[in-house]
Amino acid sequence: MAKCIRVPKSEGEPYRRGLIEEGLLDLDYRIGSDGPDLLIPCTCDEFRGIKAEETELRPQAREEGDYRNIVDVPDDLRELLPNSHDVVGDIAITKLEEPLLPYRKKIGEAMMKVCPNIRAVFLDGGVKGEFRIRELELIAGSGSSETMHKEFGTRMKTDPAKVYFNPRLANERARVTAMVKPGEIIIDMFAGVAPFGLVICRNAQPSKVYSIDLNPECEYYMKENMRLNRITNMECMIGDSTELVKSLPKADRIIMNLPQIADRFLDSALGAAKVGAVIHMHKIMEREDLPAYRDNLVKEMKEKGFGIEILQVSELKTYSPTMSVYVFDIRRTA
Length: 334
Description:
Elements: E1 2-8, H1 12-21, E2 32-34, E3 37-41, E4 46-47, E5 50-51, E6 53-55, E7 86-88, E8 91-94, H2 104-114, E9 120-128, E10 133-141, E11 147-151, E12 154-158, H3 170-179, E13 185-188, H4 195-203, E14 208-213, H5 218-228, E15 234-238, H6 241-244, E16 251-256, H7 266-271, E17 273-286, H8 290-303, E18 308-318, E19 323-332
Parallel strand pairs: 8-9, 13-14, 13-16, 14-15, 16-17
Antiparallel strand pairs: 1-3, 1-6, 2-3, 4-5, 7-8, 9-10, 11-12, 17-19, 18-19
Helix pairs in contact: 3-4
């Protein structure tokens, strides 16, 4: 018997990638299927809110799946090797602590050996500037950081060195898409290459999605991705979203994926939203501060003339030992 998570076939690839990135895919077994679902073998009891179940899966000859077992670094540094990394299309992006930097090329080469679908590995020097782009260094493989990412039947051309893109939000994009009702007007205030808009337009029936970003490099990728996915009901807009939303129709749904400071612009989003609209606001914060923050947010918006109801708060990922990235589902009530 093998442990596995059960997911719809249309959502299988993001979950498989997620398990790989977190070192939780059980390579002793093949992925199985049961009607409309995939059964993905895992080594955990729960993954992203899905409880694991036990079932019969076909075993497979296991190749080495953990680069940490083959990379040539001093033994006293092995505990510093990262156990996860981002995969965007056919490139991998990893962060390394300072003592590991002299061995970065060996680490990149080892990662490519255990991930045959990876064309290149880049060292992540951190997110820089107001455009949230990554400082990347090629440490293994070849070619640029521009790549084609696939998610829920949607093709997304992107370059993390030029534009913002987070592959770890695949499940959040699917969650929001499942909530979209036919005919909705949607505004994505900090869109990057427009992955939320693309997945929504491909898998739901919005009337219009307005994808906005301050970074002028995003315009090319937004429009190219619209062409690749034959999307006609999305509009790409470059500029300050707090100003641009003033000229748009009132929205049924607004996405605010700017976790460092999105709450600073919540009043602008509420002003652009219909009464009854839902806003999905991302926020990085100390876990212990969450209860007080919820209460204060309602009071602060009331002082600015908006009634809100916090429908749900979900943890998207761990950010640090004491902090997490949350998404707040907020309904405008007045």
